[in-house]
Design goal:
alpha/beta; globular; five-stranded parallel beta sheet; 5 strands; binds ligand Z5A; 211 residues
């Protein structure tokens, strides 16, 4: 059996990440991998879920400071790494994580304009606990992504940002992905069936390296 892996799934809203996480889990189980855990960021621990609701929903009486948002995101991430990811990796579980450091680089760095070195330094702290083995990026045009989200539900605080914001986020994703060696990039503009067919093919090829 292959050694367990820490897989991160990234993309802008409506890229289909969350749907893909479930499909990737099914695919890994078909490949005889027994324990696969899906996690989300921010979230997936008691404290991290509390932080998630602070970040996602607008408070009429108090605006969330740019840096508060960043530090909250990293606090949620550290809770998740320390309490779930690290112990589960030790036990041999496979982890599929919906978002990680690259989200902060792209949203807080690219979208909000925070100095990238601050985010890189915070990422060094999280990387010391556990570093992803693979990043899968679902690349969708912001216009298409937002359209999908609008069909699904009302927009939250971050989803209400402009198309320009998401274009900046996507630009940073592509820029910083180029620095990651173990990655898979999927054209997520296609229909769901095709997107997952592409994902399965590329993931299968990646896994073959560890036979
Ligand atoms: N955030 C941040 O700023 N910095 C950070 O470091 C981190 C996060 C970690 C998390 O909210 C928010 O936190 C997020 C970034 C910020 N910003 N916002 N907003 P979230 O977890 O609620 O949102 P999300 O991560 O962006 O996920 P999402 O909105 O659910 O989108 P998704 O996961 O990419 O897509 P999905 O749920 O799989 O699909 C969305 C809909 O599209 C759904 O109805 C699907 O059936 C449909 N779909 C999916 N794929 C397709 C295709 N291929 N064709 C047609 N329809 C499709």
């Amino acid at each position: 059996m292959k050694k367990n892996k820490f897989i991160v799934v990234e993309g802008i809203e409506g890229s289909g990440k969350t749907t893909a996480c479930k499909k990737i889990k099914k695919f890994l189980i078909l490949k005889k991998i027994k324990k696969v855990i899906i996690l989300r960021q921010p979230g997936s621990t008691l404290i991290s879920e509390k932080i998630r609701s602070i970040i996602k929903y607008k408070n009429k009486n108090e605006k969330l400071n740019l840096y508060s948002e960043l530090f909250l995101l990293y606090s949620a991430r550290l809770q998740l790494l320390e309490n779930i990811i690290k112990p589960e990796l030790k036990k041999g579980s496979w982890i599929i994580c919906d978002r990680h450091n690259l989200s902060s680089i792209s949203y807080q760095g690219g979208g909000r304009g925070i100095n990238i070195n601050i985010i890189k330094n915070l990422s060094k702290i999280t990387d010391k606990i556990a570093k992803p083995d693979l990043t899968i990026f679902f690349d969708v045009k912001p216009k298409i992504g937002i359209k999908r989200i609008l069909l699904r539900s009302k927009l939250d605080r971050i989803e209400k940002e402009s198309l320009f914001f998401f274009s900046k986020v996507r630009k940073f994703y592509l820029k910083y992905l180029s620095l990651i060696s173990e990655k898979i990039i999927i054209d997520a503009n296609h229909k769901l069936k095709k997107v997952f067919k592409l994902t399965k093919k590329k993931l299968y090829n990646w896994l073959k390296k560890f036979k």
